[in-house]
Every structure is written in structure tokens, then in C-alpha cells.
Amino acid sequence: MSERTSPARRLSEMKRWTFILPVVVFIYVICYIDRTNISFALPHLETDMGLSKAEQGLASGIFFWGYLLLQIPGGYMAERWSARQWIAILMVLWSVAAMAQGFTNSVGQLLIARFLLGVAEGGVQPALMATIRSWFPFAERGRAYAIFKLYTPIAAIVAAPFSGILLTYTDWRWMFIIQGGAPLIVGLAAWLAVVRDTPAKAGWLSTAERDYIERSRLEEGEPLQHRGTFKAAFTSRIVWHFALIYTLTQMGLLGLTLWLPSVLKKAFHTDMKVGLVAILPQIAAGVAIILIGRSADKRGGHVAHMSLVLGSAAIILGGASLISPQQKWLVLGAMILGTAASIAWYGPFWATVTKLVPAAAAGAGLGLINGVGNLGSFFGPYIGGWLSDLSGGGYALTQAFFGGVFGVAALLVLTLRKKLREATAPSVKPIPTQQLPVDNSKPERAVPHPSADPAPLA
């Protein structure tokens, strides 16, 4: 067997996939569960605290207003200070806020705990995304961000049985305490043990892999350290362009997620059947995320992949408005394909963001895009519910609307094609070798170009 394809060599070059990404995904799965587990507790809170429907909606939605506060500072702090230390601090704060929900005795206390949980979690995602950018060249980011996005289907599949077991054998207070303590006990330990701000600081990383990562980023014209500013993020047109696209996709995605059980309930009638079939769209979404991210990195054409996926989501969801609940297998098929298409664009999208957003707007820009985009998560359910009421309780108008939302997002993505082609054009400028870290240890053999020995998938 040649040295280039030896198991030892392959293992050496996949450490960033097997060390960094599993920890990042695990942390955000916990984050997502802590964000959404209130939906399982609401019936018990209604009984124990006497929460009205309006108060239940406020307790669920106030999280997103807190979530907005640290989005932009979160990305900025990760770039200008330390993503590792910043996320560690946020994990402690979010764990305390999540567990505090289990000790509340009034609506006011619950609202404060939920708001603070949103504040603490708000800085986590942009900092994690900045970490991924530091560890993966652009040619690999479609896959890396796609793997990160697996937190959505994983959390959707895990959250219901995990919360159900805790509510069965304990109560809602212990559910909040146990699930809130997970990031502090397990997530924080894994994060501090494995993750470093840059490859140069990771003792477990081989010199060959470290040099490959950093040399690839330099060859792609990307600085190893970003020194972004708030002003550059807020005044960048491309940042706001991405923010609009992300707002539309998040509006459609969360709207789809929230009314999906209702559509399936009309088709399959019983909660048991709905619970079983509702897992299938999440499985399909996980598979689609990986396939699209891998294809975008392998073939290029990130914009083409995004626009094709978002266009498919528009057609599927728009067409689903013509399907009646009595055609239950068509309903299920539309939900599977629609859910998969509605999030499979994620990997190429964030890879494109990190390529086109100017270095001066890098950290704060990631937070701005994610923060503004999450407003779609707030407005989507309300618009979907309003359209359902407008159509007499049906979901045809809602489905058509969210299909149109994805269609507009696909058109906005297409306008990025020329910019990305120019940004990824081969450069003949020499690599400034002084930017690479000095290593006085015994030199290792040169790392081949990715096209000769492609990076392994996680």
C-alpha cells in the first residue's frame, strides 16, 4: 500500500473531522434541546402555574428576543478574543439559566429564566461557526457546516423520547434541571479537552495536518486571523444580503416544523402514528444535508447547489398545497422531501458566507446574519398560523406561502454566483510563508494538494 493512502496517513488527516465536529455537534444538540424542551413542559406548567395560552406563547417566544442580544457580540468575541474561552463561559451561563427554569414558581420567574437562556445561547452559534471556519478550508466547509447542521434532525429525534422519559419518571422541574446540567457536566469538559482556537494551538494535531489547513486557507486568500469590527459588519451590503436570505429560509423552516405535526395529524389521525412518521422527515433531512454539503465541496458550484435545493423546497411545499389530507402517503412524501430540501442548503450557504463576507466584517458579520435570520423563526409561526386561520383552519395557503418564501430565497442566492466565482478564482500570488507558524520540531513530509488526496468525510 502506498504511503499516501496508508491507514496511518488517513487517520492523521481526519483528526479535525473526528475531534472537532463531534464535540461541536454534541454541544449544539444540547443547546437545541434546552431551547425547545419547554414545549413538552407546557401542559404541566399550565396545571401547576396556571399559565394561560398567551403566557405559554410568551414563555416560548421570549427566548428569541434574548437570543438576539449576543449574536453579533458572540461572533466578534470569538474572532477578537477566544472562541474556546468565550463558549466555555456561555455554556456555564446557559446551563445555569436552563436549570433555573426548574426552580421557578411564577410566570415572571419563568420568563426571566427563558430570556436569560436566550441571551446565553445567543452567542454560542456564531462562535461555533467561527471555530469551524478556523479549522476547515473553504474547499471543505460545505461538508463541515453540513455536519454541524445535523444538530437539527438529531435534536428533533432525541428531544421527544428524552423529555418524555424524564417527565414520566420525574416531573417538569427535574426535566429542566437534568437537561440543563448536561452542558455544564459533559459538554464543557469535552469542549475544553478537545477544542482550541486555531490548529496551531492543538497538541493532538499532526504538523502535517496543521500545515495543510493553514496553507490551504492562505492559498484561498483568507487570513489566518480575523480582526473584524462592528462597523464593517453593519455597513457591508453582502452581509445584509445573506441576512435576508437566512431570514427567509428560517421563516420557512420553522413554519414548516411547527405545522408539520398538525398536517400529519389530519392525515394519520392518531398521535402514535404521527409520532412515528414524523421521524422520517428528520432522517431524510440528515441524509440530504450531508449529500448536498459533500457534493458542493466535491463539484464546486455552491450557489447552484443552494438555489437548486431551495427551488426544490419551493416547488414541493407549493405543490403540497394541492394535496388533500386524505392522500396521506402523498402528504408524508411531501413532508419528507420538503423537510429535507428546506435545510439541505445549510452547508453550502455558510461556506459561501465565510468566503464572501469581508475579513473586516467576519466575526460580527456571522452573528448579524444569524441574529437577523432568526427573526424569521419568530415571525414564521405567526404568519403561518394567521394564514391557517384566514383559510378556515386549513394548511393549503400556509404551504403555498412557505413555498413562495423558499422561492424568493432561491432567486436571491442566484445573484451571488458571479461574486463567488470571482472569489474562488485561482490566484497566482505567492503565499506569505511568514504567516505560517514557526515549528522547530522535526519536519514532516509535505501535505499533498486536496485534489490528490481528498480530505475524508466524518
Task: Explain how this protein is built.
InterPro entries: MFS (IPR011701), MFS_dom (IPR020846), MFS_trans_sf (IPR036259), Sugar_P_transporter (IPR000849). This is Sugar phosphate permease. One of its GO terms (molecular function) is transmembrane transporter activity. There is one protein chain. The chain folds into 2 domains: about 10-195, Up-down Bundle (Growth Hormone, Chain: A); about 230-425, MFS general substrate transporter like domains (Growth Hormone, Chain: A). It is about 75% helix and about 0% strand. The chain contains 22 helices and no strands. Helix 16 packs antiparallel against helix 17.
Concise summary:
Keywords: Membrane, Transmembrane, Transmembrane helix, Transport. The protein has helices at residues 7-13, 15-36, 38-49, 53-69, 71-100, 107-122, 124-135, 138-148, 151-169, 172-194, 207-219, 230-234, 237-268, 271-277, 279-299, 302-320, 328-343, 346-356, 362-373, 375-390, 396-414, 417-423.
